Amino acid sequence: MPNKTHDSDVAFIKALAEVLNDNELTELAVKRDYGENDSLNVKVSRRQETVAQVSAPAPAVTQAAPAAAPAAPAAAPAESAPVEDPASHPGAVTSPMVGTVYMQAEPGAPSFVSVGDKVAEGDTLLIVEAMKTMNHIPAPRGGTVKRILVEDGAAVEYGAPLMIIE
C-alpha cells in the first residue's frame, strides 16, 4: 500500500514548515515509517535571501517516494556578498554543529562573555546543546568580543556565525 494517503500527512508537513520558520532553519528532512513498504519522506526548505528581510520567504515542500533519494538542493546563483555579512568577517566564530545556544552555564548564572570582554584562546564563549550534550565552544584565538550574533536559547545551524572576536 505505498500509495495510501494519510490524512495526517498534510498537518505533519505544515507543522514541519512552522518548526523551520520558528527556529530560523533553512532545511529540515524527516522520514516517517508507517509499516513495510509504506513511508513518507519529507524535505522542507527555504531560500536564503541576502538582502534585508522584509518578509519571510514561503517554505517549499517536497514529498518523495520511499525508494527515491532526497532531492539535491538547488545551487544558489552567484550573488555579491552583503557588506555586513558576519560569517565572512575574519574574526567570526562559527558553530561547529547544529543545536541550541546557551550563553551561560545554567539559568541565572552570569554569561560566559559579553560584548567588550577580553578572551584568551580556549576560553569558553558559550555552549551549544546538541542531542542533549552540552558542548562548550572555545575561543579559537584571543581578542575582544566585538559582537554577539546569537541570543540565549536560539537554534543554530552548522557554520552559523555566533560572535565576532577581534
From TrEMBL:
Claim: Methyltransferase is one of the keywords in the record: no
Coiled coil (UniProt feature): none
Domain Lipoyl-binding: 90-166
Species of the source: Roseovarius bejariae
Gene Ontology CC, one term: acetyl-CoA carboxylase complex
Gene3D superfamilies recorded: 2.40.50.100
Function per UniProt: This protein is a component of the acetyl coenzyme A carboxylase complex; first, biotin carboxylase catalyzes the carboxylation of the carrier protein and then the transcarboxylase transfers the carboxyl group to form malonyl-CoA.
Pfam family for this entry, one: Biotin_lipoyl
GO biological process: fatty acid biosynthetic process
Record field: compositional bias (Low complexity): 55-85
Top-level taxon of origin: Bacteria
Keywords, ordered alphabetically: Biotin, Fatty acid biosynthesis, Fatty acid metabolism, Lipid biosynthesis, Lipid metabolism
Record NCBIfam families: BCCP (TIGR00531)
Spans annotated as Disordered: 55-92
Protein's UniProt name: Biotin carboxyl carrier protein of acetyl-CoA carboxylase
Pathway note: Lipid metabolism; fatty acid biosynthesis
Transmembrane helix is among the record's keywords: no
UniProt xrefs under InterPro entries: AcCoA_biotinCC, Biotin_BS, Biotin_Carboxyl_Carrier/Decarb, Biotin_lipoyl, Single_hybrid_motif
GO molecular function: acetyl-CoA carboxylase activity
